[in-house]
Amino acid sequence: MKISSVYRTSIALLAFTTACVFTQLQALAADTGQKKLVVGFSQVGAESGWRTANTESIKSEAQKRGIDLRFSDAQQKQENQIKAIRSFIAQGVDVIAFSPVVETGFEPVLQEAKKAGIPVVLSDRAVKVSDPSLYVTFLGSDFVEEGRRAANALAKLTGGKANIAELVGTVGSAPAIDRKKGFEEVLAKYPDMKIIMSQSGDFTRAKGKEVMEAFLKAPNAKEINALFAHNDDMALGAIQAMEEAGIKPGQDIKIVSIDGVRGAFEAMKDGKLNVTVECNPLLGPQLFDLVEKVANKEEVPKRVVSQEGVYDEAQAAAELPKRQY
Ligand code: AHR
User: Fold this and answer.
1) How many A from CA of 48 to the centre of ligand 1?
2) Residue 125: which of 94, 97, 83, 84 has the closest Cα?
3) Which of 27, 70, 145, 285 is the most exposed place for a label (fewest CB within 10 A)?
4) Structural domains for the chain
5) pTM
């Protein structure tokens, strides 16, 4: 063989090998692309400042990790949430995560997810199911403890003598049930503290205002000297109702609420709200740590509780610039 033909053959061989390697690399890249973790997340809605911060934390963390997040807003309706979960099952996502609007009624759809082999992670709120294997893990606050903290704060503010108006969260939701439970547990130790009015404000500012207006029109309205709101948004609505009725919030009526959103710190700084019990919405990083482990079939604890504090008016000005939500 002539030198020139050896040379030509070598060049052709080199080109062929390079092309093969390139194709293989392309295939590998495409393969890695396909392996992107697909997570279906069904959110409660956008009912409060807390929820907005929670959604933002989940979306930004998914984006940071390169997770394909299929996000669905249930607009505070359980039927929308069930539809969303069914659609995630049909799409064959790797993991389903959701924050249940209410505690009960999810068993059948969770059985469908189990049958399809899709693991479920609960975020923020729990469900009541007879078969605990229907979800892998639950990440969220200890709502009962938050209720206890709110009652202890109110006892301190009122010297253990209080006629309390209560703004309850969404009926049937885990935070509404558990916060009430924890609050009443502590109240049982104070014979002069009682709930004289209680109604749901559905965790929204508008409903909180509306229900407080009704409370203030009740025949025994003058007896109210304390308000326990299951979240800050309802407390902020109630503050508006009190001011419109010529009542000084935070003074004439002592107010304790839950969440720790920026608006609550502003109200505390202005002396209109007395205490907020923190409920951390920034669950994104912890949630996706769990989701990734679950997808990799690693062991995770059945329950993961988020760390939270209690803040009063004296701390409000210093804390406000540090608040992330
Ligand atoms: O589940 C958490 C609760 O839901 C928050 O306290 C409330 O603000 C939200 O709507």
Assistant:
1) 7
2) 97
3) 27
4) 37-140+281-306 (3.40.50.2300), 143-279 (3.40.50.2300)
5) 0.89
